[in-house]
Amino acid sequence: MWAMHEQNRWKVSEADDVIREYAEAQSGCPVAFTYTFEEVKQLLSPWYEVNTIEKDHIFRWDVEKYIKKEYELDDTWKGVSDDVVKAWEKELGWHTLIKAVRK
After folding, report:
1. How far is it, in rounded angstroms, from Cα 23 to Cα 7?
2. I need a labelling partner for 22 at 20 to 30 A (CA). Which of 8, 29, 50, 95 fits?
3. Mean pLDDT of the chain
4. Do 48 and 100 meet the contact criterion of CB atoms below 8 Å apart?
5. CA–CA separation, 98 vs 44, rounded Å?
6. Contact 62, 72 (CB under 8 A)
7. How would DSSP label each residue in 39-86?
């Protein structure tokens, strides 16, 4: 959502392209892939049985300051409670966390 906002690109059908282009909060990320939970299961299915899949982490820092190792929330996130952030991370988190066992 951040990249879509920053680039003013709101066609949801192009969301994967925006993610690939700006996965590191800048253009030129060498590789970034997006997967649905079902695609993750299919990808791993020859070797692993997936037990759980969940989302986590939304990058909320001011990028310019973060690059300088200064950790200040981006204005977009100021005033948002931790409970709201956690709820959003479960739905829109940038990281897919997978627990699986080898077959």
Report:
1. 13
2. 50
3. 88
4. yes
5. 10
6. yes
7. HHHHHHTTTEEEEEEEEE----B-HHHHHTT---B-GGGTT--HHHHH
Instruction: Read off the pLDDT of residues 22-68 as tens digits, 9 standing for 90 and up.
Output: 776 666 666 778 889 999 999 999 999 999 999 999 989 998 899 89
- Are 50 and 102 in contact by the 8 Å Cβ rule? The answer is no
- Provide the β-strand partners of residue 52: 99
- Residue 96 and residue 33: Cα distance in Å, rounded? 11
15 closest CA partner among 6, 3, 25: 3
Amino acid at 28: G
- The tally of CA atoms less than 13 A away on the side-chain side of residue 46 is 1
Q: How many CB atoms lie within 10 A of CB 14?
A: 13
Give the chain's count of helices (H) and strands (E): 5, 2
Is the distance from CB of 19 to CB of 32 less than 8 angstroms? yes
